[in-house]
């Protein structure tokens, strides 16, 4: 029951109680007498006055009775006591990132043993680890020392505590952090699968062929929902700032999980990292400020990668793909490693048009992630 409904029920109950008390008082104070037949006929004017009073009394009683019925029905249908929700049915409270002692991180990674490395990039090296007293594996992201020394990690604890509040099925949640002189560590949930970049572009073992067209549409819809949550479901809103296929992990069910959101401020030399994944406006002010619209552009680039199987490569993918989409030459656009869709190809055409809307428009004309999530979720269900 909502707060407003509860207030209305209280008022209705008080009114009904007041009506009942008034009626009881009315009958208690009203004397009803029966006159015998042999009594002389009363004065006509007095009789008319008495009749008028009786009519008024009956009218008031009828009005009160009607009001009581209406209030009773309201109480019956809207104010019935509803079962109290169990603790299990209530949404889980958001808990900010835990601060781990550096000794725990060192023990979990065997002193950052190279055998535990599961990934590396311009931001960090990632280690598979199990923290002391916990049986669940985690991913330990060790920020490169050069970034730590360059003061890129200023405000690190407060930033991680804010980012860790983001909880969504299509995100890789941040569990905790650690810091020491010259060290900045991010502890994240362990996702057993590989990155989307690996499946699409590291095809020496045929990984790309695993992602058929239905899976690629499912991945696109999941990514849209994850970014929508960051943009609209968090307060304050979170801009990813570095959205690309290497920052997307696929779990054992090929569910897309967005990683490294909100960490772009830690990246040095952003041009080398982001060229081809952000729009021209990103560089126009000379500072490389990320925004929701630049995330939408990066999302469109990832859609083109899903469609074509090609790397972004400094904007060449966008310039190559857009004319083909405008001219509806989809057979030349699609990933050649996969067979053409045997069923209706309209879903692929719609995916291509969505990608075009993300990368071809100016910022003010781009769709929002909420709009994209709705479109792609509907496409996923078709």
Automatic annotation (TrEMBL):
<protein>
    <recommendedName>
        <fullName>Protein kinase domain-containing protein</fullName>
    </recommendedName>
</protein>
<dbReference type="InterPro" id="IPR001245">
    <property type="entry name" value="Ser-Thr/Tyr_kinase_cat_dom"/>
</dbReference>
<keyword id="KW-0812">Transmembrane</keyword>
<dbReference type="GO" id="GO:0004672">
    <property type="term" value="F:protein kinase activity"/>
</dbReference>
<keyword id="KW-1133">Transmembrane helix</keyword>
<dbReference type="InterPro" id="IPR000719">
    <property type="entry name" value="Prot_kinase_dom"/>
</dbReference>
<keyword id="KW-0472">Membrane</keyword>
<feature type="domain" description="Protein kinase">
    <location>
        <begin position="112"/>
        <end position="379"/>
    </location>
</feature>
<dbReference type="GO" id="GO:0005886">
    <property type="term" value="C:plasma membrane"/>
</dbReference>
<dbReference type="Pfam" id="PF07714">
    <property type="entry name" value="PK_Tyr_Ser-Thr"/>
</dbReference>
<keyword id="KW-0067">ATP-binding</keyword>
<dbReference type="InterPro" id="IPR011009">
    <property type="entry name" value="Kinase-like_dom_sf"/>
</dbReference>
<feature type="transmembrane region" description="Helical">
    <location>
        <begin position="55"/>
        <end position="78"/>
    </location>
</feature>
<dbReference type="GO" id="GO:0005524">
    <property type="term" value="F:ATP binding"/>
</dbReference>
<keyword id="KW-0547">Nucleotide-binding</keyword>
């Amino acid at each position: 029951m909502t707060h407003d409904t509860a207030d209305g029920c209280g008022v209705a109950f008080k009114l009904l109680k007041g009506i009942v008390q008034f009626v009881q008082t009315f009958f208690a104070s009203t004397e009803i007498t029966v006159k015998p037949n042999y009594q002389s006929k009363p004065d006509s004017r007095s009789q008319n006055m008495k009749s008028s009073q009786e009519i008024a009394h009956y009218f008031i009683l009828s009005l009160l009775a009607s009001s009581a019925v209406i209030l009773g029905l309201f109480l019956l249908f809207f104010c019935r006591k509803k079962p109290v929700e169990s603790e299990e049915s209530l949404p889980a409270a958001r808990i900010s990132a835990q601060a781990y002692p550096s000794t725990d991180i060192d023990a979990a990674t065997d002193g950052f043993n190279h055998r535990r490395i599961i990934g590396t990039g311009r931001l960090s090296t990632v280690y598979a680890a199990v923290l002391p007293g916990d049986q669940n594996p985690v991913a330990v992201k060790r920020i490169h020392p050069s970034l730590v020394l360059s003061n890129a990690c200023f405000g690190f604890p407060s930033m991680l505590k804010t980012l860790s509040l983001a909880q969504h099925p299509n995100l890789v949640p941040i569990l905790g952090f650690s810091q020491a002189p010259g060290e900045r560590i991010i502890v994240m949930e362990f996702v057993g699968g590989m990155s989307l970049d690996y499946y699409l572009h590291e095809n020496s073992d045929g990984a790309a062929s695993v992602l058929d067209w239905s899976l690629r549409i499912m991945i696109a819809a999941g990514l849209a929902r994850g970014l929508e949550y960051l943009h609209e479901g968090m307060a304050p809103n979170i801009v990813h700032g570095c959205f690309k296929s290497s920052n997307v992990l696929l779990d054992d069910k090929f569910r897309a999980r967005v990683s490294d959101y909100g960490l772009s401020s830690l990246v040095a030399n952003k041009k080398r990292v982001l060229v081809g994944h952000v729009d021209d406006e990103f560089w126009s002010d000379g500072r490389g400020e990320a925004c929701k619209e630049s995330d939408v552009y990066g999302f469109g680039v990832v859609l083109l990668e899903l469609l074509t199987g090609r790397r972004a490569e400094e904007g060449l993918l966008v310039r190559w793909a857009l004319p083909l989409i405008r001219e509806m030459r989809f057979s030349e656009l699609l990933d050649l490693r996969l067979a053409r869709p045997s069923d209706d190809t309209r879903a692929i055409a719609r995916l291509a048009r969505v990608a075009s809307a993300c990368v071809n428009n100016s910022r003010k004309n781009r769709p929002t992630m909420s709009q994209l999530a709705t479109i792609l979720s509907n496409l996923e269900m078709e």
